[in-house]
Amino acid sequence: MQPAKELKAKVNRGELTTGPLVIDHLWPGLMDHVLRAGMDYMIVCMEHSCHNTERVAEMCALGRLASFPVLVRPPKLDFSTISRTMDLGACGMLLPTVETPEQLDVVRDAIRVPPRGRRRPGGMGNRWIKDMTAADWENDVEQDTIILPQIESQKGMDNLDAIVGHEVTTCAAIGPYDLSHDLGVGAQWDNPKFLTARNEIRAAAKRAGKVMWMIGDGPSLANEGFTFICVGEPSVILESAMTQIVKQTRGEASEESLRGYNA
Fold first, then answer.
1. Quick check: 234 and 187 in contact, CB under 8 A?
2. H-helix or E-strand spanning residue 60
3. 246 and 145 in one domain?
4. What is the Cα–Cα distance from 59 to 40, expressed in whole angstroms?
5. List of residues 6+ apart from 2 with CB closer than 8 A
6. Are 104 and 168 contacting, i.e. CB atoms less than 8 angstroms apart?
7. What is the DSSP string of 185-218?
8. What's the CA gap between 38 and 205, in Å, rounded?
9. Using one digit for the tens of pLDDT, what is the confidence trace for 172-208?
10. CB atoms near residue 135 (< 10 Å)
C-alpha cells in the first residue's frame, strides 16, 4: 500500500501534512480538487455521513491509482465493522472515541490475519493485491496501515498512554468537539481545561515517539508546531470561502459606490 507507506514516512519525519475530513459530500471529482489544492491525504467519514460502501471503495481505489492516501473513519470499533472497513481498501482509519487499549486489540485482530490476528484476506477494495495470501496481506497492507485513535472522552484521557503506546497506533489523535463536551467545556477552544487535555495528548504522543493528528485552523495549528493537520470538512471550507467572497465583494461594491458619489 504505497500511498500509506509514503504518508506514514512523511508524518514520522515531521513534515507538514494536510488533508480534509469528508463528511457531507463525496464524489470522484473531489479527488481532483484535493490533489490540485496540494493536500497530502483524505479521510472519508462513515461515522456521521450517508456515504455508501461502494462509493467509499471507489474513492480508496482512485486514491491508490493516484498515489494519494485515503483513510476512512468507521462508525464503530467492533471486529466486523473494522474488518469491513479494511475490505474497502482504506490506507488506514481514524478511529472514533477510543477509550481503552482493549478496543485497539480488537482493531488489531480485525486488520491482521492469523497468526497475528483473526482477519481473513479479501474485500472489494483489495483486488489490487497480487495474491491474497497471508504473507501478501502482511507485506502489502498490514505493515503500512495507518491507525489514528481519537481521544474524545475523559475515559480516553485516563487511558491515554496505553492507547497512544499501543502497537497498532500510528499517531495520537483527538476529537476536539466531543472531548470538549465530555470535559464540560463544549467548543470552548481557549478554555484551560480543554487546552490542558489537548497538550496532554500531544505530550503522550511525544513520550511514545509518535506524532499527534490535530484538526482545526491549519495556519494556527502550524504556528503551534503541529505537523499532521486536518484542515476541516470540504463543505464547511467551501461555505467559509463563499462567505468571505461575498463580504469582500459587498465591501468593494460599497467603496466603489461611495467613490462614484463623491466624484
1. no
2. helix 53-65
3. no
4. 15
5. 64, 67, 144
6. yes
7. -TT-TT-HHHHHHHHHHHHHHHHTT--EEEES-H
8. 26
9. 999 999 999 999 999 999 999 999 999 999 999 999 9
10. 10
Same domain for 174 and 261? Answer: no
The grid cell for 260 is 462614484
Question: Do 28 and 134 share a domain, yes or no?
Answer: yes
Residues 86 and 168 in one domain: yes
Per-residue pLDDT band at 126 (split at 50, 70, 90): confident
Nearest to 206 by CA among 226, 235, 192: 226
**Residue 78, domain extent:** 2-232
**One domain for residues 165 and 245:** no
DSSP 8-class letter at 49: S
pLDDT at 253: 52
Residue 138, burial from CB neighbour count under 10 angstroms (0-12, 13-18, 19+): middle
Q: How many domains does the chain have?
A: 2
**Which CATH number goes with the domain that contains 125?**
3.20.20.60
CA dihedral of residues 65, 27, 21, 206 (deg, nearest 10): -10
CA-wise closest residue to 26 among 65, 68, 70: 70
Q: Are 250 and 212 contained in the same domain?
A: no
Q: What is the DSSP string of 17-40?
A: EEEEEE-S---THHHHHHHHTT--
Same domain membership, residue 262 and residue 143:
no
One domain, residues 161 and 254: no
Alpha carbons 242 and 10: distance in angstroms, whole number:
32
Please provide residue 53's backbone torsions phi and psi, each rounded to the nearest 5 degrees.
-65, -35
Residue 114, Ramachandran bin (φ over 0: left; ψ between -120 and 50: alpha; else beta): beta
Triad 107, 111, 115: Cα angle to 5°:
105
